[in-house]
Amino acid sequence: SATKEPHIVLLDQNPAPSKHTAVPLPWPQRFAPQTGAQLVGNDAATRYLSKFLSSWQVRMALEDGTAARTADVKKKRKRRASACSDSDGSDSDFESPRGGCRRRRSCSSSSNAMNGCLLVGPVGSGKTAAVYALAEELGYVVREVNSGDKRSGQAILSLVREATQSHRATTGKPTLLLFEDVDVEEDKGFHAALRTIVESTRRPVILSANSSSAAEAWQSEVEVVGFEAVAEEDVELVVAAAAKEAGASLPAEVVKEVAAAARGDLRRALLEGQVAAA
């Protein structure tokens, strides 16, 4: 809300550019939030996404055997294996699309949560920022597949399996799969493969879209979380704070103009604020 003072954090791994740096880091990256509390606007959506990712941590602990193996948990796992034919000993984060239990919801007897989550909202409303901030806070590695990547059905199936296995081996952290702009992809093979991934995943899958039509197409298969354009007052606060942190001179009237022109697109406002401060 407009009354909450935003927390703008300069990333330690991306310090202010020196005189030897040819291109300064864009402000949206330089001041990217690192926790849910640092996100501005869409508080309810952020809490819902955090709850979704936290519930996945419980599911992964049970499925990976990192939780205490009590007798009760063993019985539940045995019942789940019998019902879903899901315990194949595979090291993959995805079940085979042939056989087994292809489900959109968890097979766990203690959870009826969806496997995937769709974030729907206008450009610059903070969907991607929320995913990365919460992933950092909760200990996930994000594997992003955006519209600039090769996204045929076979390509994303291969890419996802390789990425999840390599990240787990090198970082020890679970992988969070992020598919950006699913509403602009027209390849039928992509959508079929994406549904296979959502049905068979053992790791959280998050989709993002700008159009409400995506919510209609996916609402029976994933959780749908709506994001709204960031309030103009909040955009002003963020741009002003970023300019201050960057040591740039940006008059209040310019900040207001930038915020008004952005129409709730926080990423655009930060980029235009950086240009105005140059």
From TrEMBL:
Residue ranges constituting the AAA+ ATPase domain according to the UniProt record: 113-228
Molecular function terms, GO-annotated: ATP binding; ATP hydrolysis activity; DNA binding; DNA clamp unloader activity
SMART domains: AAA
Highest taxon in the source lineage: Eukaryota
GO (cellular component) term, any one: nucleus
Disordered, as annotated region: 1-20, 67-111
InterPro entries: AAA+_ATPase, ATPase_AAA_core, P-loop_NTPase
Pfam families: AAA
Annotated protein name in UniProt: AAA+ ATPase domain-containing protein
